[in-house]
Amino acid sequence: MTASPSHRGVSIRWKLLLLMLGIAVAPLFLIAWLDLDAMTALGARLAAQTGAALGDQTRASLERQADNFARLMSRERQLVELLVRLQVREVERALAAPPPAHRTMFGDAEFDAGNPELALESRPQKYFRLNGPDDQTPIPISFREQAVHLAPGTEARAVRDDAARLGTLTPFLAEAHRHHDDLVFWQFTALASGLHASYPGHGGYPENFDPRLRNWYQEQERMHTFRWSPPQIDVNSRLMLAAATMPVFDATGRFAGVTGIDVRLTSLLRTLTLPPHLAAEAQVLLAVNDADATGERARLALIARHSQRETGGDWRELPDVEHLQLDDDAAQARLLADVALGRDGTLRTAWRGADSFCVYRRFGDARTFLLLIVPTRAATGPAMAAAEYALAVTKRQSDTLGSIVLAVALLIVGLAFLASRAVTGPLDRLVAAVGELARGRFDTRVDIRTGDELQRLGDSFNAMTAQLAEHTRVKESLALAREVQQQLLPRQAPSDPRLDIAGLSVYCDQTGGDYFDYLDRRREDRAELGIVLGDVSGHGVAAALLMTTARALLHGAASTLESPAAILDEVNARLAADVRAGQFMTLFYLLCDLDRRVLRWTSAGHDGAWRFRPITDEFLELSGPDIPLGIDAAWRYREADPVKFERDDIIVLGTDGIWDARATGGERFGKNRLREVIRRDTSGSATRLAGNIVAAVERFREGAPPTDDVTIVVIRITE
To answer: Are both 248 and 150 inside the same structural domain?
Structure first.
């Protein structure tokens, strides 16, 4: 029963709201009026103090972050230098050794052709060719081989032995790359003969590429020491890379070439993270002291930034160099003076029109600096915005409060009186009716005519009492049916020193359709024990009634017939004559012949049982091809070929409520998980294993309600 749609009026929500306003708003307005001036002054003072405190806190935080970042960058730089020194040692050792007899090196053309021996793979997040803004093509790479490129004019025969010698370095390069993938981009060796080897192996080299013309090679011809090159456009990827290089000497001490590692500086900067409220507007920069031609005036050349967007370019051209320029000349002069002396520092200055913190820290050699530039508004902006908003709201309140306080106070007094009577009367009647209902009087009714939610609540209460009485009767009937059904299931398993048997059934409704039973057929002339497990279609009262009927038929047939197939033929013929269309029952009849130590069975459309042999970790499914009971009265069931059992074997029969149980995400429990539970518990009792299986299903559901009955029978061969 529902409330009539003609019941219109002020809702109880508004009545309660008006009551609360009458109690709270008048004192609030009075307090606001008295404290208006104090709030205005306090808001301005708090805004100033908070902004200053946040500014100091941000400055100190940035200095700590810069110190940590600089130490991290120094460690990364030292690690790259160590890798290069190890690499040059291995290169010189390989060049001094005899050429290997059967070492094949692959030219870059074979990488372009996709030779299957190279085991090319794609890692587009790191290795790609930048064709332009938002346009990139993956570069196929090989971690199995280096790629060899010959400079123009270089004869392959002249460098074949050196190429083979360099090929022996592939395991060393692979190991270094695997452990330092976040640092290393390319590992390369360029010899004076024009031979260039690179790892990971890749193609994409222009025909006119000569590594001896790159600035890092020409610097090493002059300097003969470890050096970092200025960032330059990579010939393959078109990304901005910096090369860490060292010279290579032959056995006579003569300059033989250069070996090194390419590093993508922007990837290093992206590992440096700032707090979220600062990161959006912060600039993290790498810069070097790029003195002018006279060497007397320091300049800061920016070589990388964390937000840098690369667009590709011509590898033969040097990239444009941007120099850091602060808006304030005095701050710029102090910054450059510190840079010239290799000193760290912190400035508060203007940069690109915004008041900013500029923190700079030296790392590596005296020329390289890490800079953090953060606008002060990123730190103090939230506090200032909140203060300005508070002041604006206070001003608006002061303009309007005075004229309405008196009128609001009078209105609230009247509404409080009316609302209290309109609400408390119907509520008192509802409280009394609920008390009667609690004492078991289901004929209790209330009569409320307020035209709002209270009247609808009263109408719902009247409908609820009738439904509650009916629900109580149904619940009592189901409880009785469940008790009767539980009495039909075996209370204990048959006792036999050769077997340990346990059965368990958990229904998803008050009554269920799963069934298990034991048919004790042990006599003086034979030792046979029947175990039956079935599942009626559906669940609830109808399934329970069909289960009860099947049990009675099964016990009757088992008293006169011998084989499992004959018993199921008899039960099926009688059951098919009584059930309506769509009702059926799957059933598995297992007969344990304890003298012959064999298992005989017939399955009426039921999932197979499992025999697990712990000593060999072997599962054998005991299944059958027949249809469920109650479908075709003329069907003739077949008994499967007997199977031997041995001591310590475990036989498990179950219903689909086990493997069809689903977790909250929809995943099925499955038979593989069931087998794992059985495999983990091979030494305990059958009762413990049955309980473990049910517990595993309940844990897997993760609190989701069961949708089917769960029944399990476990037989453990004890001797």
So the answer is: yes
